Amino acid sequence: MQSEIIKRTVELFNSEEIVRAIGWRKGDFDYDLNPSIFKSSEDLEKNFVYNDFSSANLSKFLIKISQKEDGKTLVFLKSCDTYSFNSLLQEHRISRDKIYIIGVPCEENLDPSKIKAALGEDVLSMSCDGETVTVETLDGTKTISKSEVILDRCLACKSRKHVVYDELFGEEGEVLDSKRFDQVEILENMKPEERYSFWRTELSRCIGCNACRDICPACTCEKCVFDNRDSGVENKVATNDFEENMFHIIRAFHVAGRCTDCGECSRVCPEDIPLHLLNRKFIKDINEFYGNYQAGDDIETLAPLTRFDAVDVEPSIVKTRENVK
Amino acid sequence: MLTLNASQLDEFFALIEKKRELYLPVENKTGKSEYKRWVEGDKYSTALRTVKSAKNFFFAKSENLYDLKMDHKNVEVIDTREDIKEFVIFGVRGCDVKSFDILDNVYLQDPVDTYYKNRRDHGLVISMACSKPATTCFCALFDIDATSPNGDIQAWNVEDKFYFNPLTEKGDAFVEEFKECFTDEDSKPVEKQKEETLNIIERLPFVNLNMEGFGVEDKLKAIFDRPEWEDLSSTCIGCGTCTYVCPTCQCFDIKDFNVGDGSIKRFRCWDSCMYSDFTQMAAANPRLTQTARFRQRFMHKLVYYPIKNEGIYGCVGCGRCLVSCPVQMNIVKVIKAMGDN
Fold this sequence. Notes:
By secondary structure, chain A is an alpha/beta fold. In chain A, 34% of the residues lie in helices and 13% in strands.
């Protein structure tokens, strides 16, 4: 697949259809691919990689790279990434006519930290052949079943469908029954104090690095309120750990109805905080209150929180859940 | 050499904790390891590295400096420094121990940072030799011997035994104080483990990177002007992950918190050169682009710091940035791109 993608992209370079491509650049190992700009077909042929570790969602980079530069930018998008792309388009953060999308097929991505946790940290290379992941280590070749080392977010994949593209590699996929709200339900069914304690424990690991915010395709403000000295809420350091926890809850509010559930926040968190569950709770509530809505599905439908219908749930009504213990 | 059976470790910890505060790596619910205050039941984690480094013990993530009591035109300055109890950090890897030297060069030089010094004076470091380095480790590139780490006391864990060797006066006094815990045994197993580990370290992929051109004053401008910075930083998202997991990143910001009752708390906290409001001046951050901010971080570690500190690099090769950077850009990739590797 990688060689076919490269071949086609080189054609697009040569025909001057595109002047740059955003893709995954070869690293020192198979798993440390750097989202990167390829400015020539030679660079792409030599350094572009599409493999089980091409997890980075490249859509957000388009704001910086395609908007301020001349010529068309090619971007490679996996199915889940295309939802982010549509959201950015809908919010006028990128211009469709400056971008050429190659949809790339996606099986589940693999999680290098799961592989290392299982097989040791002396990994030299990792590759996946069907159901088996083969790892070269300083200690020899080891294998592990793919199912054990799939990236968490891919275990609850919501869609294999590319909702936007100029050309697509592989078959057209479908929206999946992801069971992605199961974990949210577990949290909803906890007693309030249990749930409070769950989040306090998870969020207590936060180091305040802002990686979740900065990678998030829905967080696209030119200047985040939390970076603005004059806002009075700048948070280089929180007054206490509760305030630090609140940052994530506030951020989830900011992206409510806009988050496509791409899962980048949790993927990049150095402390493995399941931040996506906060966003997913909002998605689930929005679905229940306003009818099913998937951000990024298309660019026409207005998000539930930006429109009003007479049948909308009243804010004063506190929804009671049947199965609350 | 002084030894202790692994089965006696918790007893040893309990004894230390009676007299001092004890901190050590413990596995958290994600399976990764983090430093925490030891309480009964905590198990020492032998994980290679903690997610965050150990620098927080001396260079705190945030710390109150003093309070200002405002009463019309009078401003009273109140020293709010807390008495710091004697504390022990157990299980610090060689790379992290070396990072303390790098921080010392900054904070203990004239004018001495008394807040930092206060913590440094009250802390005792028991290091732990590595036996299973990762392929993302490259401390050897900076002449650090992970099999014989520094610290007040160096330690090894070979099978179900711990070996201790005090290196400083403070370390001597400590083992004397706790001498009833130790037995004296042959150090052969330690020598064997060292040899085996050094064998692995030799085969790690980044321990022989070419450092030529870095850390030299007359190459400073040339490296600064290299065109590669643009591409390397092109997808840097400007978060502070690398900075905050890094054991040697040492920048802080000083801020005021208005308590609202006429008093102000002046505190300092970790800062990141990756942030848009880093070194904010009257107008703005003098580094207007992410490329300039990115370059600053690596120039500091690979060029400015060694020029000022007799060739010692501002990196200890712990590999945390290799693991944690959301876009998989890191100091190894920078060294390779800039150093003609």
